[in-house]
Specification:
- Helix content is 43%, strand content 13%.
- By secondary structure, it is an alpha/beta fold.
- The protein has one domain (4-272): Rossmann fold (3-Layer(aba) Sandwich).
- Helix 1 (4-25) crosses helix 4 (71-81) and helix 3 (37-47) crosses helix 9.
- The two termini are 26 Å apart.
Length: 275
Amino acid sequence: MKNLSLFQEKSKKIRQGIVSSIGTLGVGHIGGSLSCADLLAVLYFGEMRVDPQNPKMEGRDRLVVSKGHAGPAVYAALAEKGYFPYSELFTLNKIGTNLPSHCDMNRTVGIDMTTGSLGQGFSCAAGIAYGSYLRKDGAFIYSLIGDGESQEGQIWEAAMFCAHKKLGNLIAFTDYNHQQIDGTVSEVCTLGDLASKWAGFGWDVYCINGHNHEEIYDTIERAKAVTEKPSMILLETIKGKGISFVEQAGTKNHNMNISQEQMQAALKELEEGLQ
């Protein structure tokens, strides 16, 4: 259900959870977690058919975050949805935690696939979507990949498979923030015309503002109506979105140290809505 005020509220809560968990630890993948917060708010609070009280529900929609280093964002969304207590966020990547830095389906309730080695999660999403298609269970399978991750050959192998199998139940997103661990995407290995690449591989393609909740929701609804091919939604995003000093860090915000003072400043900025 489209509820723009709810999406706005949940995006802020997710970003607060990201900042609090990484700030408590003192270091983490903050840039690419903040850039996908708006998408997660729309998915978990407007689109996905899931039940935190029954996380293994048959026929549920699933999300595979192939850019597994965005785990802190997913954990914040899951906590906000009620999968586990919010206080667990403060155990991020600590000894004995159920919230490792990268998504782990064997450790964290609500995680549908272990990811981290870039490219592999998307292939898993393809397999999950094909299984759902064969079962005819009516589920939608969502997957989020990174733009740096899109340099991996395995992404394009999976893309061919999904188009060949006409997996209209698979909706993928690219977090197109134009940065990766070693620099800008264009400097490391340019992706060229990414929309044309996906279209050439047989996908339905959309290019939208990845921080506009209405665009995200409406585009997902359009993609869900496409039954004969998978859909790719390219999200133009800002790495570190919502926290000015993280945005300004540029490529250094992939995995950065966050002091207690910076954490408090970031939380204040989010509360005051400076971004």
